[in-house]
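Quick check before the chapter quiz. The format below is the same one you will see on the exam, so make sure you can read both the input and the output lines.
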Amino acid sequence: MDGSECEWGRVARWNPPGELVLLWQLGADWTFDPAPRTEVEVDFTPDGAGGTLLELRHRHLERYGEQAETLRGIFDSPGGWTGILTNFVDRARQVAA
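Here is the expected output.
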């Protein structure tokens, strides 16, 4: 990481400890664009065994028009949300150990 920063959205709703909704404001070219306004919703729920279930939904991808399916594939790929959440879980396990 080179320390650079990029505006990519804002917090739409934060209801601790269980809900976070972010407005994702990156265009299909990965630059800031307030127009698409897709939403990333993250819910945290106790799993009953002392852990937490994290659910992530990236909604309204249809707002990307013709590029929606391409972006859905990127977000669903190992380099997208799947990879980010895998890294998150790995780090949480390291901290808990």
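If your answer matched, good. The first helix runs from residue 68 to 76.
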